[in-house]
Amino acid sequence: MARPATTVGQVLLDRLGGQAAVLAGLDDAVRADEPDAVHRMRVACRRLRSALRTFRRLFAPGATDHLVAELRWLAAALGRARDGEVLAERLAAQARALPAACRPERVAAELERWGRVEYRQAWPEVLAALDSPRRRALADALATLLADPPLRRRAGRDAVPELARIAEREQHRTGERVRAALDTGAGPAEQRDRALHEARKAAKRARYAGETAAPAVGAAAERYTDRMKAVQELLGEHQDAVVAAGTLAGQAADSGEPFGLGVLYARQLTAAETARARLPQVWARAAGRKLPRFG
After folding, report:
1. pTM of the entire structure?
2. Is the pLDDT of residue 34 over 70?
3. Is the sign of the CA dihedral 90, 94, 96, 102 positive or negative?
4. Cβ neighbours of residue 119 closer than 8 Å, sequence gap 6 or more
5. Most exposed: 45, 133, 139, 252, by fewest CB within 10 Å?
C-alpha cells in the first residue's frame, strides 16, 4: 500500500520531536540510576545531533549550530560514567571465560571493583549536568526549534527522493572513510585505529539517516539501516577491543592478577584483528549502488 506523500522537512521534525521526547522523559530515570537510563539518554543525544547535522541544509544557515554543540556537551557529560560501566561489565564477563590457570573469578572481581570506582567518580558529573542551567537551556532550545522551526524552502520538497539523496551521500561518505581506514592497514596502529573509529562514526550517522527515513520510505530504508548498522557494530567491536586493550595495559602494572589481565589483553588484540579482517566483507553488503535508491 502506498504511503501518504509528505515533505522531507516534516519527516525531519517527526524524528526530532520523537527523540526530544525520549530525552526529556529520561531525566528522572537517570537521576534514579535506573538500568540503561544513561545509555538511552546518550543515544537520544546522538540521534538528535546526527539528525541536525545530516539535515542541516534544511535549516537556515547556522540556526542549529549551538544546539548541536550543546547536545555534544550533554552526551560527553554522560559518557564517562557509561563507558567505564560498559567496559568493566564486558571485561569481567570475558574474564570469567578464561582458563582456570588465569584465576578467572579473581580477575573478574578486580575488573568489577575498578568499574565501580570509575562509575562512582563519574556519577557526580552526570548529576551536575542534569541539574545545570545549561541542561534546562538545552531543553528550551529544542522546544523552541520544534515550535517554530527555521526551515528553508527546500524542506518542503517531497520526502522520498530527498531522503534517498541524503542516504546516498551518507553511504558515499562512509565508504570514503572505510576505504581510507583499510588503506592504513600497514601503517602505524594508532593511525589505523583512529581511521577505523572515524569510519564507525560515519556508519552510525548513515544508520541514523536510514532510521529517520524509515517511517516515510518503509522497507528500503530499513534495509539500508540494517546494512549500515552492521558496519557500525563491527567497527564498534573493533573500537571496544582497542579501548579495552589500552585499559588492561594500564592496569596490569598495579594489578594483583597480571597474568590473567595479560591473557585478556591478548584476546582484545585478537578481537580487533578479527574485526578488521571482516570489514571488507561487511562493507561490501552496505556499498551497493542500489541500496539508497528509495524510490
Report:
1. 0.92
2. yes
3. negative
4. 81, 84, 85, 88
5. 133
Residue 203 contacts residue 231 (beta carbons within 8 Å): yes
Query: Grid coordinates representing 41?
Result: 539518554
Residue type, 194: R
Residue 139 near residue 45 (C-beta atoms within 8 A):
no
Query: Does residue 28 register a pLDDT over 50?
Result: yes
Locate cell 522546544: which residue?
Answer: 143
Alpha-carbon radius of gyration of the chain? 21
Distance CA 160, CA 163 (A): 5
- Contact residues for 8 (Cβ-Cβ < 8 A; gap 6+): 55, 58, 154, 155, 157, 158, 159, 162, 163
Nearest to 20 by CA among 127, 138, 133, 132: 138
- At 84 the pLDDT is 86
Find, among 266, 272, 270, the residue nearest to 240 by Cα. 272
